[in-house]
Write a structure and sequence with these properties.
Pfam family, one: NAD_binding_10
Distance between the termini: 12 Å
Structural class: mainly alpha
Helix content: 40-55%
InterPro entries: Ergot_Alk_Oxidoreductase (IPR051604), NAD(P)-bd_dom (IPR016040), NAD(P)-bd_dom_sf (IPR036291)
Protein name: NAD(P)H-binding
Strand content: 5-15%
Shape: globular
Strand order of the largest sheet: 1-2-3
């Protein structure tokens, strides 16, 4: 089984990739810039760029100078909902296994995170900012086309999941 790690170069993603590889798992690492990912050997690094269409429009049409855009897809999905979508689209069993608080704290400590960082991560895990669940129309306003759904993205990138 291959495990997909989204945000593979982030503060949580990078150590997760390292730990999964060390445990002998196959890892597919999703990142915006595979050339700069600098992930351990053995990780299959794939590109996942959610901002390309907006960037292309902003760079090639007038009226975008000095603008700041907050981008979202057309739906706010939890990690279990994303995994369920992947499973449904690919037509195979993909499971989401959430670690307990104690399990995740042990992993973070083993990775070298401070108690202060761990406390922050735990707060974000149990009380994430509302912005993460707010769907915005920015993509369609800028490009004239609706943002892709997560299911559409999975279909378009099915080969990245080993299908």
């Amino acid at each position: 089984m291959t495990i997909l790690v989204a945000g593979a170069t982030g503060n949580v993603g990078r150590p997760l990739v390292e730990q999964l590889l060390a445990a002998g798992h196959r890892v597919r690492a999703l990142t915006r810039n595979p050339a700069k990912a600098d992930l351990p050997a053995g990780a299959e690094v794939v590109a996942g760029n959610l901002i390309a269409s907006v960037a292309a429009t902003a760079l090639t049409t007038d009226g975008h100078a000095g603008q700041e855009y907050w981008l979202t897809g057309p739906e706010a999905l939890t990690p279990p909902e994303k995994v369920r979508t992947i499973s449904d689209v690919l037509g195979r069993d993909v499971r989401y296994i959430e670690l307990t608080k104690d399990e995740i704290v042990v992993q973070w400590r083993q990775t070298g995170y401070s108690d202060e960082d761990i406390e922050f991560f735990l707060t974000m895990r149990t009380n994430p900012p509302q912005a993460g669940y707010t769907v915005l129309p920015t993509v369609e306003k800028v490009t004239g086309r609706p943002a892709r759904t997560f299911a559409q993205w999975v279909r378009e990138n099915a080969t990245a999941f080993g299908t």
